[in-house]
Amino acid sequence: FPAQTSERLQNDIRRLVRIALERGEQLRGGGPGRYWDDPPIHLLVLPELSCPRSCLPLLRSWSLKYRMCIAAGLEYEESTDCRLNEMVIFIPVTRNRAGDCRDLVTLRQRKLFPTGEEMRCAQASGLEVAPGLQQFLIEDADIAAWAVVNCYDFTCIELRDKLRGATDLLVVSSLNRDTTTFDLLSEASIRDLHSYLLLANTGSFGGSQILGPFYGEHARCLYKVQGQRLATCEVREIRIGGERGLRQAQIHVMRPGQR
Description:
Layout: H1 7-28, E1 43-51, H2 56-66, E2 69-74, E3 77-78, E4 82-84, E5 86-94, E6 102-110, H3 116-124, E7 128-129, E8 135-140, E9 144-150, H4 157-163, E10 169-173, H5 179-192, E11 196-200, E12 209-211, H6 217-220, E13 221-224, E14 250-254
Parallel strand pairs: 1-2, 4-7, 9-10, 10-11
Antiparallel strand pairs: 2-5, 3-4, 5-6, 8-9, 8-14, 11-12, 12-13
């Protein structure tokens, strides 16, 4: 799990976001328009450990300019004795009823349950992996109620139980070789969580998918890719907003117990 800090990766992320915005424009069938009032993309997801921390100012500016929520898996951050694996979540909001005071809510969500491989790699470098203590549940009018989990946290039964009935969309940011296990978990999740599921895995492993809480198998699978070295950016549209009558972004904090 090397830190990804090269200039090439920063340029790749810039290119991917531009492609995503262009495809978002095509999906909504219009020109550039006023992004804040009519955003071409509501949610951008980058897989676990894929985003250099030097890209944070750029992602923040894009989120504010295009009124686009962003959930990005950040590269490792290391201090003298610990290593952090965390997501950053940018949520654009308005601070008054007129809608002309624009701001961002920034959340940092650490991985709750680091894998054995992560802990062994950190210990070999004389470091400890610092696990997270909280899970965010986000409610907003554009996307409805949603949450992001960081790869292996997807396997936590207690966390899934807390999210059951509370989310319209569960996002999984992943760096996972074992795509078969996550395929099975994804199928189970739309049944017991009763929500849409978006799994974004690295293109090196494939397995990214979007599933819906529907009965028929073909109706459930809205999008899926298999194999390796596939398309680096995909844009898909699902309609889930407005089901809870939401008006403004709200953040709820859950605290699953540690294993």
